[in-house]
Amino acid sequence: MSEFVPYAKNSADVQAIAAVLDQLAIGEMATYAGISAAIARDIQAHRYLLERACDQLLKQRKVFGCIHNEGMKRLSDAEIVETSFHAFRRIRRIARKSAKRLTSVEWSGLADSDKQRHNMHMSVLGAIVHAATPR
Question: What is the pLDDT of residue 83?
Answer without folding.
Answer: 87
